[in-house]
Amino acid sequence: MALKRNVGLKGMKYRGGGPMLAWALHRISGLAMVLFVGMHIVASFVMQQFGSDWATNLNIIYESTYFQLIIIFLVYFHAINGMRIILLDFWPKLLEYQREATWLQWMLLIPMYGLTAMVMMLIKLGGE
Amino acid sequence: MQVKLKIFRYNPEVDKKPHYDKYEVEADPTDRVLDLLEYVKGNFDGTLSFRRSCAHGICGSDAMRINGRNRLACKMLVKELGTDKILVEPILGLPVIKDLIVDMEPFFANYRSVLPYLINDEPPPKKERLQSIEERERFDDTTKCILCACCTTSCPSYWANEQYVGPAAIVAAHRFIFDSRDRAGAERLRILNDQFGVYRCHTIFNCTEACPREIQVTKAIGEVKRAIATGKIE
Q1: Which residues, in sequence order, are bridge partners of residue B19?
Q2: Best mutation target, A15, A84, A87, A102, to test chain B (most B CBs within 10 A)
Q3: Domain with CATH 1.10.1060.10 in chain B
Q4: Scanning A79, A87, B214, B233, which has its CA 20 to 30 A from the CA of B89?
């Protein structure tokens, strides 16, 4: 009997390279944003209704600079990668140049994120 | 050079679960992975099963996962892998019949669903259905498909759901949709404008990277998406 169709985690090991990583990171960053906004809503609700330490701790986590550094990277990535996909979908002729589009995406993302991260770290180190 | 081969093995008559067998073989850098598999079958284990036919990248029989990527074993040179460790596994997303042989029927069922043949009920002209160079050029890229399934079985959307027609079927549809002699483009677009049609493609590009014929698969899918959205076959 043939071995049934079973991809599961084997798919994660497929070496699709940069484009596949961008696709995976797009999903992960989307989920991370839902998690971030979800934490915010839950913490605000619990704080308002019960004023518990649990909500304060949740606030401390998502308001910490390190957590926000990660979230901002994921938000920027999701936005710019999403723009790349939309542009390629609208003009299929550009799909031939997807490698160049990916390079352009990182050329935008790195300075934008670097600048934001630098400002955030300066504020943190400045003690404001 | 000495090459360490690790090959996926599964014999449905003996094994409950698949396993991997390791072989060490002497190889030239210009040997193909298919040559190594032939050597193992001829010298170490005659039960090793894999498909091969032309062995020149035309028949599309020997698609397999080589070091984690879909490739034709007959086109993959040892030197191109850049390592002396070679892992050979069957393509993903199709049932494994034995060792590296998969059941291609679900793949061909999806292929057949897009009507991959010329449809034109108009009376044939006395000579032939003429086509300009530009009209022929429009779908030239997608005529190169050899139905090896490298693209479809590298697609995460297909891994997630085998009802998705897959890149190869869309490439086949593209080849006829944009053929000026064909008259069933609208019907194919209707078939592909389905929940398991073109919109399952999330522009991951694994298909384009995997295609041994260097077809711009994602571009072809994008053109079909656009034709569905605009209602125009341009």
Answers
A1: B9
A2: A15
A3: 105-230
A4: B214
